[in-house]
Structure formats: structure tokens, C-alpha cells
Design goal:
By secondary structure, the protein is α/β, with parallel strands linked by helices. It has one domain: Alanine racemase (TIM Barrel, Alpha-Beta Barrel). It is built from six helices and five strands; from the N terminus they run βαβαβααβαβα. Strands 1-2-3-4-5 form a five-stranded parallel β-sheet. β2, α2 and β3 form a beta-alpha-beta unit. The chain is elongated, with a radius of gyration of 16 Å.
Length: 145
């Protein structure tokens, strides 16, 4: 489950605790998609520290979505945009670990960038959603990755 706000994490915590559960969560990091998630760095660290105080919830790591880079046709431009996004989440992971917060999972996802993201040291999971369906847009771009 992904969270990017303490109020959301607290609600999950209350529900889990009331039912004797422990729910794993990832903090969503905005890696330049600007659709959801926290800015990389200190905002993520602050939320991670707050989550550690909650019962019924366990922080497992970070997730981001670099999908904006998948639509870039030029391969070098796509790699550059994807690399900048990946760098921001990896630096955030390092910041959390330097603060003593274990980050087991770094999850990213985009069909158009799965090969780039999948080769990034530190990424533990790829969520390439439309890859299985192989939409026409991705067929065209995938051949160039």
C-alpha cells in the first residue's frame, strides 16, 4: 500500500490496529511526474519518521513512477530523464538509511522505462503495468529501449 501523507498513514494504522493487523506501506515519492507523492528528500524522511511511531503499519520502502520519461522517443533523452528521476529516489533512500530507517523496497514502474529502471542499482521492484498488454505506443517505444 502506498502513502504520501501522515493522515493517510494514521488512518491505515488505526484500521490495522483495530483489526489486529500489520500493514506494509511504501512512501510514494514524486520523481518529476507531479501526479502524486512527496517531493524527494526531507519531506519523505519526515513522513518516514512519523510512520515509525504508528502501530499496525510497517514502512517497507519507497515507490515512484517515472512514466513521463517513457513517452520520450529519443532513447538518450529518455535515459537521461529516467536517470534523473531514479537518482532522486535513490538519494532519498540513502537519506533514510543514513537516518537509521531500513529501506527494503525501492519500487518503480513504467512500461516505457522498465529496462532503464530495472538496470538501476538499488531498484528492487519494477511495476511495468501495460507491458503485458503491449499497447501500440509502447511497442513503438519499447523497440528503442
Amino acid at each position: 500500500m502506498a502513502v504520501d501523507d501522515f493522515r493517510n498513514a494514521r488512518s491505515i494504522s488505526r484500521l490495522a490496529s483495530a483489526n489486529g493487523l500489520r500493514i506494509d506501506v511504501l512512501i510514494e515519492v514524486d520523481v518529476r511526474t507531479h501526479r502524486c507523492g512527496l517531493e524527494p528528500g526531507k519531506p519523505v524522511l519526515a513522513l518516514a519518521k512519523e510512520i515509525q511511531s504508528l502501530e499496525g503499519i510497517r514502512l517497507r520502502g519507497l515507490m515512484g513512477y517515472e512514466g513521463f520519461a517513457g513517452s520520450i522517443i529519443d532513447l538518450e533523452e529518455r535515459r537521461g530523464a529516467c536517470s534523473r528521476a531514479l537518482d532522486s529516489i535513490i538519494r532519498t533512500r540513502d537519506m533514510l538509511e543514513d537516518a537509521g530507517i531500513d529501506v527494503e523496497v525501492v519500487s518503480l514502474g513504467s512500461t516505457g522505462t522498465y529496462r532503464i529502471s530495472g538496470s538501476c542499482p538499488g531498484v528492487t521492484e519494477i511495476r511495468a503495468g501495460s507491458y503485458v498488454l503491449s499497447s501500440a505506443k509502447h511497442k513503438k517505444n519499447r523497440s528503442r529501449v
